[in-house]
Amino acid sequence: MALTSLEFFAFFALLLLLYHCVPQKAKNPVLIVANLVFCYLAGGVRTLAFLSFTTCCTYVGALMIERTESVKKKRAVLIVVIAANLAVLLFTKYLGFFLHIGNAVSHLAGNTQADLQFSIAAPLGVSFYTLQMIGYLADVYMEKIKAEHSPVSYIVFATFFPQITSGPISRYAELEPEISRTKKFDYKEFTFGLQRMGWGLFKKLVISERLAVLVNTIYADYETYSGFYIAAATVFFAFELYTDFSGYMDIALGAAQCLGIKLPENFTVPFFSRSISEYWRKWHITLGTWCKDYLFYPILKSDAFVKLGKWGKKKFGKKKGKNIPVRLGLIILWFTVGFWHGGSWKYIIGSGLLHCFYIIGGQILEPVSAKIVKLFKIDVECFSFRLFQCLRTFFLVCFGFLFFRAESFKTALLMIPYLFSGNMQVFTEEGMLALGLDLMDLRVLFFGLVLLLLVSVFQTQRGSVREWIAKQNLVFRWAVYLSLLFAVLLFGMYGPGFVANQFIYQNF
Amino acid sequence: MTREEAYEKLNEVFRDVFDDEDITVNDATQAKDVDGWDSLEHINLIVAIEEMFDIKFSMGQTTSMKNVGEMVDEILKKVEA
Could you read off the pLDDT of A320-365 as tens digits, one per residue? Predict the structure, then answer.
């Protein structure tokens, strides 16, 4: 049951009716039933079983950590429960990758036996809820929060259906007040939630699905569609992924808002970022902050890294020395971020180590760029320079997406020479029409992207579009709402005979 | 240790980490007020403060202190403990 399917909307309408009619005490139990029904319909019994395992062992583990006095025992429980959760993740998602590496090593050692193969479909959302549960347990261990004793509140947090398949990765400290407070029906929140879901559907069904057709055509036959076709397809893919993933977030956060629950934001106009670091503060925000708080900082604060820093300062001086542990930590962090996306080098490089290279490269080149800025007296806050920085960041990110989208790391490497074939057909009408969309679809796509740009600019400069629309007169307001509804109904790619692609991050 | 003494040492750490001799922090100083105080330098700063005062911040404190005032409160608590 995808979030764009009719089944989901029937399920959601029924839930809204029930949820807002039952007394306060029954709201969270209703949510739990809805969460479990959603997990079953979306991912089957397997997803339900794995999610139940992670939920139960983390609940018990957190209570044990809280009740135990001994620091050693607390740590032992933390390690055992994290290991159990990671074991599920690694077994279901990464075993194939480890076997692949094992086979390669075995071949290098001269072994000629047949490769070991293993393939199992990962439970839906396992990468997301595993991180969320580890974060909860770590927060209890670090005494940032108290362990939740009420199984009801805890299960709502652990299984909340809008976020279970693709995040956002929530923190208990933020979500608990939302779950436990008295929820009265709020017309504004309810309608804002529906509007946000509408905008998410527009992004996914009108923009992302059309871009997917163009991208799939070019990436499936990059030898024919060489040159600027590949460059265009990679830029299209950046927008496909953004409208897909942020569209999902709009539907998820909007659905939660209709239920009176505020989830954390995962995107804040990332393609307007002026640096790679800024981009990662605006793209998949909850993954970035999770990795920073539960991986990067603990590594950097560990005794081994503190000692490494001291050694570095002695050996290379204060400035250079302090960078040694930080950069080693960054390499571990970005490897993990890439690996989290999937057990494949295309993710490890495209969404991980390449970005690490950009960030460390940026740090090393910082004095040079500062000198250039000073020498040419560049006003770094003027529009043209900011635009240059945004475009530079965007194209660097797109280069990573080339790996991310390609069939494999090897295919991505093979595609790079084809980028420079000089084929400019993509800039002609015939060239664009050969990619699977007719003229009408291309026009709809163009206007969809222009609307996305306008909304993004408005959000950056003036804030919430929904707040602004809500202040307009009745006729204008409803004209906007109905236009959005009809745009999705008329131009959305869905319905019988068309299967909307899964949300891309649902596979992670 | 008095609050003033803590600030004296803390300013020294800030100047060293951010490589700026003009930095003077106070209770209200936040990351946005100091040039270069991002998530990478934050962890360098925390480690340098731990070293200077011979204390250890918990991971929770590392990520939740909102301003330098809260940082000094924690330092004084730990030094006096």
Answer: 888 999 999 999 999 999 999 988 899 999 999 999 999 999 999 9
- Looking at the fold, whether A472 and A434 belong to one and the same domain comes out as yes
Query: What ranges in chain B are assigned the alpha helix state H?
Result: 3-17, 39-53, 59-64, 68-80
Q: Give B-chain residues touching A143 at CB under 8 angstroms.
A: 58, 60
pTM: predicted TM-score of the whole model, two decimal places: 0.90
The residue segments making up the domain with residue A479 are: 191-267+406-507
Q: Do B47 and A301 touch (CB under 8 A)?
A: yes
* Mean pLDDT, rounded, for A183-204: 94
In chain B, what residues touch A358 (CB-CB under 8 Å)? none
Nearest CA in chain B to A302: B47
B12 touches chain A (CB under 8 A): no
Q: What domains are defined for chain B?
A: 3-80 (1.10.1200.10)
Alpha helices, DSSP H only, in A259-295? 276-282, 285-291
Per-residue pLDDT tens digits of chain B, which is 81 residues long: 889 999 999 999 999 999 888 899 999 999 999 988 988 889 999 999 999 999 999 888 898 888 999 999 999 999 887
Are both A410 and A488 inside the same structural domain? yes
Closest-CA distance, B36 to chain A, in angstroms, reads 12
Residue A449 and residue A236 in contact, taking contact as beta carbons nearer than 8 Å: no
Q: Report if residue A253 sits inside a domain.
A: yes
A319·B38 Cβ contact <8 A: no
**Same domain membership, residue A172 and residue A67:** yes
A65 and A208 inside one domain: no
Task: Show which of A163, A185, A207 is a domain's final residue.
Answer: A185
Backbone torsion region of residue A284, taken as left when φ is above 0, otherwise alpha when ψ lies between -120 and 50, otherwise beta: left
DSSP secondary structure letters along A44-107 = HHHHHHHHHHHHHHHHHHHHHHHH---HHHHHHHHHHHHHHHHHHHIIIIIHHHHHHHHHHHHH
Of A158, A185, A212, which residue is a domain's last? A185
Please give the tally of structural domains in chain A: 2
A115 occurs within a structural domain:
yes
Compare all CA atoms of chain A with the CA of B19 and give the residue at the minimum distance.
A319
Size of interface A-B (CB pairs under 8 A): 40
pLDDT 10s digits, A395-444: 999 999 999 999 999 999 999 999 998 888 888 888 899 898 999 999 99
